[in-house]
UniProtKB/TrEMBL annotation:
Superkingdom of the source species: Bacteria
Positions of the NIF system FeS cluster assembly NifU N-terminal domain: 7-126
Organism: Phragmitibacter flavus
Pfam families: NifU_N
NCBIfam families per the UniProt record, alphabetical: SUF_scaf_2
Protein name in the entry: SUF system NifU family Fe-S cluster assembly protein
GO term, biological process aspect, one: iron-sulfur cluster assembly
């Protein structure tokens, strides 16, 4: 199928029916991510297992279809993954949006489709919001239930 069609379908499906949408009761790492340029935001909840892997991950918030879809896909990709695997995914995602001329990394699966957003630079922030929030969650001490605020910078 046409890649653009597939992109539209996947974004639409995830934004209409976001996976892992909801809250995780404390203690949990909670990150508030927001995109000041539009006011969209997400609240990310990450529960780390003792070995540092992601035991559970959920999000709530309001945002455009791309930010919601990207968050939904991100949670599907990272739930149950080890810290190492998550770090690899984050790097692959970063590479996807900064080197759009490159072949996307296969481990990203469906997320590869988000590469299309490079054509609309304004949307890069939408696609990265959840991933930046996850980065922030990883940087937060997993033993605490701190709440931090992160702002999505330029793509
Ligand atoms: Fe980050 Fe190349 S992957 S700039
Ligand atoms: Fe606000 Fe996409 S328009 S995150």
């Amino acid at each position: 199928p046409d890649l653009e069609d597939l992109y539209q379908q996947v974004i639409l499906d995830h934004s209409r029916r976001p996976r892992n949408f909801g809250e995780i009761p404390p203690p949990v790492i909670q990150v508030h991510g927001d995109n000041p340029s539009c006011g969209d935001e997400i609240q990310l909840f990450v529960k780390f297992a003792d070995d540092g892997s992601i035991e559970d991950i959920k999000f709530t918030g309001q945002g455009c279809a791309i930010s919601q879809a990207s968050a939904s896909m991100m949670t599907l990709k990272t739930k149950g993954k080890s810290r190492e695997e998550v770090t690899t995914l984050l790097a692959a995602f970063h590479h996807l949006l900064t080197h759009h001329e490159d072949e996307p990394a296969e481990i990203l699966g469906d997320v590869q489709l988000l590469q299309s957003v490079w054509k609309f630079p304004q949307r890069v922030k939408c696609a990265t919001l959840a991933w930046r929030s996850l980065e922030q969650a990883l940087a937060t001490d997993s033993a605490s239930d701190a709440s931090v605020t992160t702002e999505a910078g330029p793509g």
